[in-house]
Specification:
The chain has helices at 42-48, 98-101, 156-159, 165-175, 191-202, 217-223, 234-239, 258-261, 284-288, 302-314, 329-337, and strands spanning 2-7, 17-22, 30-39, 65-72, 84-87, 90-92, 113-114, 139-143, 148-150, 183-187, 206-211, 227-230, 244-249, 264-272, 293-296, 321-324, 345-349. It is an alpha/beta fold and 356 residues long.
Length: 356
């Protein structure tokens, strides 16, 4: 299957260029689909720049894919031609370890295979040793297990970011028992943060949005935040001490977490979600006297991803998006690399790759 897309040719955002490549031949359990839209995620910046040290080039980024099924294998049972389909951050795992069997494939003991920047090793996403290629392209093949059904009557461009931003926030919210009355803080009001506010609000939580940008207060409250904290305002931070049950920290730039831990109530939890690359500095005494926790969370398993899609679509929870063409990708990534002061999520119209 010949595919039109965009690829990074080196560890430089400026190296993105039109790129033609072939998808693997579909098998009995595979679904072929036309990618209609693909969201742009801050992780794309990290992977393109090889911040984690394992990137291979050319790299076709993108793990927020949504489109329409064009063909299904003979053993596929959940999808038919014409269905809407979504693919998120992973396309394979061992399917046999403790965590895969508990529907947490993202924590596969031998490593889940990322939608892009990964290498096929379990036999469900192409020949062994072949790098995976993501959604900055116009066609995709995926094993049925790693696809989610998307309702017919929704805006596909708005739903695309749910495949990463949505599940990345939904999973820790559910995992940590957020419910009506929970006091939750969301640090960072970019693409992840705005989804976290909307999902937590829909579950009845009292949401405090926390940001370094005062101009995000109005937008945060419009999305459902009850309170807004400017993290550079020492007085406001002091007044909010011990007021939150849980904090979801979405900031992907390296930053200090101790100021936020001071906001946690006794037995509160600070969840690291943003993909930072440097070690955290946390004073043990700050945790000991309040039995507080610092933990992390990585996307969600396939069962919960489907649950998230159903939840968000039923409650009309979608990010604010800006649809862009292929030639605008570099500019969008550059904005994400800097301090992105926008509340919108960039989404690529994948029909533009053919003419790029």
């Amino acid at each position: 299957m010949s595919v039109n897309g965009y690829a990074a040719m080196s560890a430089d955002l400026g190296s993105l260029a039109p790129h033609k490549f072939d998808r693997y031949a579909p098998g009995d359990m595979d679904i072929s689909f036309d990618i209609k839209y693909c969201g742009i995620c801050h992780t794309d910046v990290h992977f393109i720049k090889n911040d984690l040290g394992f990137s291979q080039y050319p790299m076709v980024p993108g793990h927020e894919l949504i489109g329409t099924v064009t063909a299904v294998g003979s053993k596929v049972t959940k999808f038919q031609v014409g269905d809407n389909i979504g693919v998120g951050c992973m396309v394979d795992s061992c399917m046999d370890c403790k965590y895969c069997k508990q529907n947490e494939e993202q924590y596969c003991n031998t490593g889940s295979t990322f939608t892009y920047g990964g290498v096929s090793k379990y036999g469900r996403c192409g020949p062994a040793g072949k790098p995976t290629a993501g959604g900055y392209s116009d066609k995709m093949v995926v094993n049925e297990h790693f696809a989610v059904k998307v309702p017919k009557d929704i805006s596909l461009e708005k739903a695309a970011p749910l495949l990463c931003a949505g599940i990345t926030m939904y999973d820790p919210i559910v995992e940590h028992g957020v419910k009506a009355g929970t006091k939750i803080g969301i640090v960072g009001l970019g693409g992840l943060g705005m989804m976290g506010i909307k999902i937590a609000k829909a579950m009845g939580a009292e949401v405090t949005a926390i940001s370094t940008s005062p101009n995000k207060e109005a937008g945060a409250k419009e999305m459902g935040a009850t309170n807004f904290l400017l993290s550079s305002d020492a007085d406001a931070m002091a007044k909010a001490a011990k007021s939150l049950d849980i904090i979801l920290d979405t900031v992907s730039a390296d930053h200090e977490v101790m100021p936020y831990i001071g906001l946690l109530a006794t037995k509160g939890t600070h969840v690291m979600i943003g993909l930072t690359t440097k070690p955290l500095s946390v004073a043990g005494s700050a945790l000991l006297f309040g039995r507080q926790n610092v933990t992390g969370s990585l996307i969600g398993g396939m069962q919960r991803t489907q649950e998230m899609i159903d939840f968000c679509c039923s409650k009309n929870i979608f990010p604010d998006v800006k649809v862009i063409g292929a030639t605008e990708i570099k500019d969008a990534l550059t904005k994400l690399e800097g301090k992105n002061d926008s509340l919108v999520r960039y989404v690529i119209d994948c029909g533009t790759f053919k003419s790029a």
